[in-house]
Amino acid sequence: MSTAPRLAAAKRDWGHDETGCTVLHIDMDAFYASLEVARHPELRGRPVIIGTGPRSVVSAASYEARRYGINSAMPSARARQLCPDGVFLPVDMRYYRSVSREIMTTIFHAVTDQVEQVSVDEGYMDVSGALLAWKRPSAIGAWIRAEVERRFHVTCSVGVAANKLIAKMASTNAKPNGMLLIPKARSAEFVQLMPLRGIPGIGPSLEKRLNSWGIDSVADLAATSMETLQRATGSPAAAHGLWMASRGLDDRTVTPVRVEKSIGSEETLLEDTTDQRVVCRLLREACDEVAGSLRRRGFVARTVTVKLRFADLSYRTRSRTLQRPVDTASALYPQCVRLLHEMLGMDMDACDAPLTKLIRLAGMSVSGLSDTAATAVQPSLDDMLEEAESADASTTSDRRRRAEAALDAVRQRFGNQAVKFGA
């Protein structure tokens, strides 16, 4: 659910010269909410909000719900106040991801293999290699919009431009259910029409900093020297990026294979707690989910991070890089408990003691990912001794991994809740 500003003046005919406009950005319209309406047609026309629970936040809202002032990341309780008659539904990520995967595979990849998926509901395409068959990029965009609606009963918006920046800004301003072509020669004119927040990556903090230097729009940004931008941002790299963006320039290429940087899971408690058993249960379930995801995707991880959010909404993280890459909950969970104790200044043996701060949210993630098949794992001395003494030359780690792989098979057949990892 995009909250980027849209400008009515930008949603117009910018011309029909498609020369060099080989980048498409496709963004699904209110994707989660639209998918729920697609499988529950009786909800059509009603305000649908994805996100339930007294302490949850809105993940998506239909356009009918947005008229009430409901936006993503808004507390669900606040959304209920704004729209008491709205239809509130839980997040069903498995369903959303499965439809997303089918759209990307059967529609986007039917045009070209140069597809970069950046989230469950948006992606870029470089269609330069497909123009021999399709002739015009806008013809591809029109076909994608029609096919997505015909086959999946949801709509999407398309931006057609010479680079990723302008294509994304164009799709944002084409919403909902539209397409916007920005000719290459008019890229700078288009972007300089926008407010600062219209440029992806400029958030409230950077906007406020730029405002303090008298920069209130992208047109102001384009008129600012590189030296001034460096002083305003405190970063040569950030200044260069802003200078480029304000002129409609972007040298990033569409990258078909995205390297995953991390996998994580976190959960907000219904009530703040100091009960260590409750927090450890959340961490144990997060480890189980993340480890299963690692194995499904064929990754191992070297770094584990624990995240805590406290009652005052502040948060803290702590990480540890492991000696060997892992993909099992049995290896991740003990590390998470150690990190939890370290963050709160507790004794490592204080397994049942109350925590020293009220916890609102707990979660963990892994990073330093590498392909399982291509990653060499050096056995430890303990492993070698255990292998020598074991009848089947296996180690405890081997047996635990086989056990968790068996859990994967049970869940695949009977559902994720069929069996859980035990401490």
From TrEMBL:
InterPro entries: DNA/RNA_pol_sf (IPR043502), DNA_pol_Y-fam_lit_finger_sf (IPR036775), DNA_pol_Y-fam_little_finger (IPR017961), DNA_polymerase-Y (IPR050116), DNApol_IV (IPR022880), IMS_HHH_1 (IPR053848), Rev_trsase/Diguanyl_cyclase (IPR043128), UmuC (IPR001126). It catalyses: DNA(n) + a 2'-deoxyribonucleoside 5'-triphosphate = DNA(n+1) + diphosphate. GO terms for molecular function: damaged DNA binding; DNA-directed DNA polymerase activity; magnesium ion binding. Its EC number is 2.7.7.7. The record marks Y32 as: Substrate discrimination. GO terms for biological process: DNA repair; DNA-templated DNA replication; error-prone translesion synthesis; SOS response. It is an enzyme of class 2 (transferase). Residues 23-203 form the UmuC domain. Monomer. This is DNA polymerase IV.
